[in-house]
Amino acid sequence: MKKQKITSFIHREGWRFSFVALLISISLSFIWLPLAIFGYLVTFFIIWFFRDPERSTPDTPNAIISSADGEICLIDEAFPPKELGLEDISMKRVCIFMNVFNVHVNRSPIEGSVEKISYKEGSFFNASLDKASEKNERNSIIIKTENGIEIIVVQIAGLIARRILSFVSNGDKLNSGERFGLIRFGSRVDVYLPKTFKPEVKVGDKTIAGETIIGSL
Known about the structure:
The chain has 3 helices and 16 strands. It is an alpha+beta fold. It is elongated, with a radius of gyration of 18 Å.
């Protein structure tokens, strides 16, 4: 099991939001206490939302690890996002829906190098809907393994999410289960895999990013 080292109990992206919410709550304490209490609850929720727990990633050979905490909402075959230039290649796809209560730090499903990153603006439909994969704002990442296998991870904005964050650049090396991005406040991650992929999950299953094995090659 590979341990993912962390330096804080929440992701660094959460500190700014938490600090602003705390300042507002303190200010409200001098105006109206019930409103201030609500502000402190919001501050607590923001801290909890941006939590970034340590994860232990399995060393199982050929395993594909979940890129997101959430629920499997779809398993099918589909074409990757058009902007990647691979739209004529049908691949197996595993879709994971994250609600506002899930950890929103995304992790690499395999060990490999970042071959391409492509961001596309779009709409903000409910991320659990199938059309979200095509219509919503998204950030697509191609990860290539040492033996040449390409896997695509697509971060998709949801009904509430308004910001997709990527922490990697072209050429970066990623370990299996390593953090590569974050989506704020409810969203979805689609993982496109070769047709040799054998799923070990089904629709409705819960997943833990960096830990749950969703299948193997």
